[in-house]
Amino acid sequence: MSAKDEWAPYVVGSPSMRPNWTNDDCCPFESVFHVCHVRDAYRIFEDGKIRSSLVWDESRLKNTRTCVSWVSPNTWVSGSIYGNICFEFDWRELVRGKRFFWVEAISYYNPAAYRVLVSANSPLKKLQGFDPRRKSRPLFYDSERDIWYRNGKFTGEFLVDGDLALAGCKRVSFVRHNASICKRKPCEYVGEGGTIAGARLLSMLLGNRVATGTRLFLAPKGRTKALHDDAVGALDYLLRKILRHPGPRGFVKAPDSTARFLATAIFSRAGRGGKNGLNSLCGLFVNQQELRVALLDRIRGHFGLRSVAGLEELF
User: Fold this and answer.
1) What value, to the nearest 5°, has the Cα angle with vertex 17 and ends 14 and 21?
2) 38-47 vs 194-207: helix axis angle to the nearest 10?
3) Could you say which of 12, 88, 96, 195 is the most buried, measured as most Cβ atoms within 10 Å of its Cβ?
4) pTM for the whole thing?
């Protein structure tokens, strides 16, 4: 079977001519996403990039030593099967100067998936390239209107040749994990909410002073720099539900020189999960008020903020 025969069921249809209506087989898109688990996301921040890896499943790229980074334009109504942390990339920037190659269809997925390799190089001869500016292709680029389209009836899996620098990422958000399915087996986080996972990731970043990519948790540029809603929600959960003063009265106050180091240690302990030692560390502060002030100071310093709207109202 030729590549054209393989991709025939997945080609993009025609754009809708009706106002406020999108055809399922011709969906415009501007962003693609890489979703992963918390510890993998933490590693991405440490490395400053999404490291490419070999294709390990049943793909025809399996034995080719081709290393790719996976992204998709799809979102998950019932929760992601890849984890909770979502890295968003601008599709136009990602594919600028790149070529497109049909890889394969995975028809037994539900919904079925198609795979396209995105590369600036000349990859394997057995992969057929295609021009997305031409119709009846797995992707369609309307160059006159500068709009990209995909077939929304299927799962698009785009394999980007090489690493993805965190500098090219637009935003990091937190999504719910699917309640029963995960690509990683076993997985202890099925069904976990994005806010809880986001709280764990931010704890790890704050607790280990990993400052790479702090802008990815900020709201779109305005007159005042501020955290975006997902980050505020995760930190609110931390301060309200997890980082609680156990009593009795400790001896450290927020203005003390040791407070910022203790706050960092508390975030680090919270990021590892479990309550062993966490209550003891929180209890070193005089009370809950001093604890929260110190933690908020640490948050402001990490993200370079003057204030944290949505969190300071806790006091």
Assistant:
1) 95
2) 40
3) 12
4) 0.95
Supply the DSSP string of 144-192, one letter for each residue: TTTEEEE-TTSEEEEEEES-EEGGGEEEEEE-PBPSS--SSSS-TTTT-
Contact 218, 226 (CB under 8 A): yes
* Beta-sheet pairing, 27-29 with 169-174: unpaired
Alpha helices in the chain (DSSP H): 3-7, 38-47, 91-95, 194-207, 229-237, 259-272, 278-282, 288-303
Structure tokens given for 305: 């903020």
Q: Read off the tokens for 205.
A: 């970043």
Could you tell me which residues come within 8 angstroms of residue 31 by beta carbon, excluding any fewer than 6 positions away? 73, 88, 89, 90, 91, 170
Residue 12 neighbours by CB distance under 10 Å:
22
Distance CA 205, CA 42 (A): 7
- Please state whether the peptide bond connecting residue 248 to the residue before it is cis, i.e. omega within 30 degrees of 0: yes
pLDDT digits (tens, 9 = 90+) for 28-67: 999 999 999 999 999 999 999 999 999 988 888 888 888 9
- For 90-144, write each residue's pLDDT tens digit: 999 999 999 999 999 999 888 999 999 999 987 667 889 999 999 999 999 999 9
What is the spatial distance between Cα 141 and Cα 34, in angstroms, rounded to a whole number?
22
CA distances from 219 to 60, 152, 159, 173 (A): 41, 28, 28, 11
CB 150 within 8 A of CB 113: no
Beta carbons within 8 Å of 22's beta carbon, 6+ residues apart = 16, 28, 152
Strand 155-161, strand 67-71: pairing: antiparallel
- What residue ranges do the domains of the chain occupy? 3-174, 194-314
CA-wise closest residue to 101 among 149, 59, 161, 51 = 161
